[in-house]
Design a protein that fits this description.
The complex is a heterodimer of chains A (428) and B (170). Chain A is built from one helix and 28 strands. Chain A is mainly beta and 428 residues long. The radius of gyration of chain A is 33 Å and the shape is flat. The chains are: A mainly beta (428), B mainly beta (170).
């Protein structure tokens, strides 16, 4: 038995030794160091620039690391630095060099630094590598047809819930050549990267300068409205400037990264139950009564008013869009429960709604009733929310007009020149 | 509703009237006027015309015609140039009348730009006209008044669709 015990002990020892020798696979932690260099340290604004990322990886296996590139006035990262791009690189063990293309889309002339921010596997804070270069802004930036550049900066926007607030940052770079240049823009919450009429507008602003290569950082505190349904969104800077060389407005869009919005808000307190008209054929220029059935008291009624604006539009489809033809609006009180709101409407395009000179023309339309109400569901700051409802298809026919007078402001005219004639007309 | 716009020598429509433009009348809130910028074709003879609006209230229905009460003069435009001779006092204003209507002062001017056959001339005035082609009487007066001044020179100028065919030396 004693001999058996000895053999057993020896066997266990050998087995333990074998296990210890093979052991579980472990990563030997070690630093990854990064050096940046640029083959050409004289860079034109908006040029693609090749940046060499030299790494020394003393861990025992390759690592995938995301590098975020920023433009900085010094070699140290700060939150004011302009975000340029991100790229993930596979870092093998040992020394390695890889090339990354970075577009220097922002900045002012002179000495600048390109920063690479990265998180090594053994660290809990971002590390920064930098390279100095000289930026020239008198090359591409002088393009007369490309006078405004927009760039996102700061880190990407994270997912949000409705009613949450945060700062949105972007840069405008104006390259007005010797004359004043103004860029007018709106900020929208959009379902995609292109502006359309359904996008939710936050604010309007502009930036203007007479200084060559003017760079301005924009930041605005915005709140995701509770009208934004759950889904994926972008923040869009959508605006224009007037290009005198081309003789037209030049439009441009700067989308943010996509982010998710989760809507926890309750639904609208207003429900439109119907839009009622006396028929389906009407004459432009005449007056008609429009009756709207409204149910008030549901949804978020504790945070909204029973006073609401009723807007009326003619639309070529049954959905409201900002291109629809505004007719008129009224201010109505809606009772708790079912209400019936009646408005007398003249079926003429309202001349005060738009600077457009187009008028209401005969054809098929839908009458859209849009209720606008103050919504306090995101707190004490109200925003406007809307509930829409469409009538059935109606026909607007041409009125009978009579020309009752013709006049002109000058009684002389010459050939090949224009002559303004004014017609006075009445409905008959 | 569309209206056809014509120029007419009288205030009734005829097929010989000159078509200018077709214009759509619209209704806007708070206004009952529309206006149209029309270009006067060069093919229309110079003259004085009424403006007519001719329209139907319904397709295929009766035509209605509305005429302006004013008349518009369709004329030609150009410049007549008058020169002064320095043998007269160059610092004294003289005055141009066309068909007995005051048009301009003849004032001292540079000698540059005058024709080679007018070497002693150093005063110039121009009469920019918009008028119906024809022959007009001009007078150069010593005063800006036909009754108070004396007629220094009188004559005629001819204006055509190609401009003024007159240059005068006083």
């Amino acid at each position: 038995m004693k001999i058996l015990k000895i053999y057993h002990t020896i066997a266990l020892g050998i087995l333990t030794l074998m296990c210890t020798c093979k052991g579980p696979e472990t990563i030997i932690s070690g630093p990854i160091t990064v050096e940046l260099s640029m083959s050409n340290t004289n860079v034109n604004l908006y040029d693609n620039t090749e940046v060499t990322v030299k790494t020394s990886n003393t861990t025992d296996k390759s690592q995938s690391i995301t590098f975020s590139f920023f433009l900085s006035s010094d070699a140290n990262y700060s939150t004011d630095d302009a975000y340029l791009t991100s790229q993930s690189l596979n870092i093998p063990t040992g020394s390695n060099t890889q090339t990354v293309t970075v577009n220097i889309s922002i900045g002012t002339s002179g000495k600048n630094y390109l920063l690479a921010r990265y998180m090594p596997p053994s660290k809990t804070e971002n590390m920064t590598a930098s390279v100095e270069f000289t930026l020239t802004t008198t090359g591409n930036a002088q393009s007369k047809t490309d006078r405004v550049k927009l760039s996102n900066y700061s880190t990407p926007i994270s997912d949000k819930t409705s009613c949450s607030s945060f700062y949105h940052y972007f840069y405008t770079s104006l390259t007005g050549v010797g004359s004043s240049l103004t860029f007018y823009y709106n900020l929208y919450l959009s379902k995609d990267t292109q502006y359309d009429a359904q996008d939710i507008k936050f604010y309007s602003s502009n930036t203007s300068s007479t200084i060559y290569n003017y760079l301005e950082a924009k930041n605005n505190y915005i709140t995701i409205p509770n009208t934004a349904a759950t889904g994926t969104y972008y923040l869009l800077v959508y605006g224009y400037y007037y290009d005198s060389d081309q003789g037209k407005n030049v439009y441009m869009t700067l989308p943010s990264n996509s982010f998710k919005v989760t809507n926890n808000a309750s639904s609208s307190p207003y429900t439109i139950t119907g839009v009622y008209l006396s028929g389906n054929e009407f004459t432009i220029g005449s007056d008609y009564s429009v009756n709207t059935g409204v149910l008030y008291g549901g949804g978020n009624s504790s945070n909204s008013s029973t006073y609401a604006y009723f807007y009326y539009y003619f639309s070529t489809d049954s959905l409201y869009s900002s291109n629809d033809i505004y007719v008129t609006n009224s201010y109505n009180t809606v009772n708790i429960g079912n209400s019936s709101v009646s408005d007398d409407i003249t079926f003429i395009k309202s001349s005060s709604s738009s600077t457009s000179t187009s008028a209401l023309t005969p054809g098929s339309y839908y009458l859209i009733v849009r209720i606008q109400y103050s919504d306090y569901s995101c707190g004490s700051t109200s925003s406007y929310s809307y509930v829409d409802y469409s009538s059935g298809k109606i026909t607007l026919k041409e009125p009978d007009l009579s020309v009752t007078g013709i006049s002109f402001t000058t009684t002389t005219a010459t050939k090949n020149s224009t002559f303004l004639i004014v017609f006075l007309h009445i409905l008959t | 509703m569309s209206v056809n716009i014509y120029l007419s020598t009288d205030n009734t429509f005829s097929i010989s009237d000159y078509y200018l433009d077709q214009y759509s009348l619209y209704f806007y809130t708070g206004t009952n006027t529309n206006s149209d910028d029309v270009t006067i074709p060069s093919s229309i003879p110079s003259g004085t015309y009424y403006v007519l609006a001719r329209y139907q209230k319904n397709t295929g229905g009766e035509y209605y015609v509305t005429s302006s009460t004013q008349q518009v003069m369709i004329g030609t435009t150009g410049t007549c140039v008058f020169y002064r001779n320095t043998s007269n006092s160059i610092y004294t204003y003289k005055y141009l009348f066309i068909n007995d209507e005051y048009k301009d002062d003849l004032y001292y001017y540079s000698s540059s730009g005058v024709p080679s056959n007018c070497t002693s001339i150093n005063s110039i005035t121009t009469y920019k006209f918009t008028t119906i082609p024809g022959t007009y009487t001009y007078k150069i007066m010593s005063q800006n008044s036909l009754t108070q001044g004396t007629v220094l020179k009188t004559g005629s100028i001819t204006i055509t669709d190609n401009g003024c065919v007159f240059q005068d030396i006083d």
